[in-house]
Amino acid sequence: MRIAAPTILVAAILPVGVATSAHADEEINPSLSVEAATVVDLDGNPIPVSEDPGVPGGVSQNAGVAQTPAGEAGGGAGASGDLRHALGSKQSRDMKGYEPSLYRGEWFMPKKEHRRRCIMDRESNNLYRAVSAGGKYRGAYQMNRALAIGATHMMMKEVRKEMGKPGVRALKRLREIPTQQWNRYWQDRAFWTIWRKGKGSFHWRHTIPGTRC
After folding, report:
1. Do 212 and 114 meet the contact criterion of CB atoms below 8 Å apart?
2. Domains in the chain, number
């Protein structure tokens, strides 16, 4: 049974057991589309989006909150690496296909990467810009809007500590952007934050009926 979250504040405390559903709670194997929406930077300026299917993984599409300066590497570890990804590193702007999680912070569980990969595959065919047939569920993990916005509140304290004002600004900007336009880093981070060491796994409990995805 699905219990809809009445407010964003409820969504913000999801790990304690409030069952706001993600995509898998209602629809299995949806008809997905990839939305040709405008991607914007932190100042609201449009960012050109590459749709070339021939571009190799890691450089394919542009869907971050902002771009990194030309020539800046997208890799890196720790807070500085996270900030580069948060602001639109090369890796974070690749919106197609499975790659190891860009988020590696407190909630990341390397031994559960196979579960994340399975969920992505079943929910969205590994497309970060996927939108369900009715438009309610979006992104690689097919989160509804209440769940996605709730995740931004859950992430705020750690983002402020790790990245300071630039990270907080980028995180708040996500609340104005459709979830499928969040870059790979933010979608991965939202997933692990909601997953919360398994306490939030129920949001995807019906992703693959009869299996242990």
Report:
1. no
2. 1
Q: Cβ neighbours of residue 56 under 8 Å, at least 6 residues apart?
A: none
How is 153-207 classified by DSSP, letter by letter?
A: HHHHHHHHHHHHHHHHHHHHHGGGS-GGGS-HHHHHHHHHHHHGGGTTGGGGTTS
Spatial distance between the Cα atoms of 132 and 154, rounded to a whole number of angstroms:
24
Domain membership flag for residue 1: no
Domain that holds residue 21: 8-204
Q: What is the DSSP letter of 25?
A: G
Domain assignment present for 182: yes
Q: Say which range, 123-137, 161-175, 194-208, has the weakest mean pLDDT.
A: 194-208
Tell me: the pLDDT tens digits for 93-129?
999 999 999 999 999 999 999 999 999 999 999 999 9
Neighbours of 191 (CB within 10 A): 25
pTM check: above 0.90 = no
Please indicate, yes or no, if residue 73 is contained in any of the structural domains: yes
Report the C-alpha gap between 54 and 56 in whole angstroms.
6
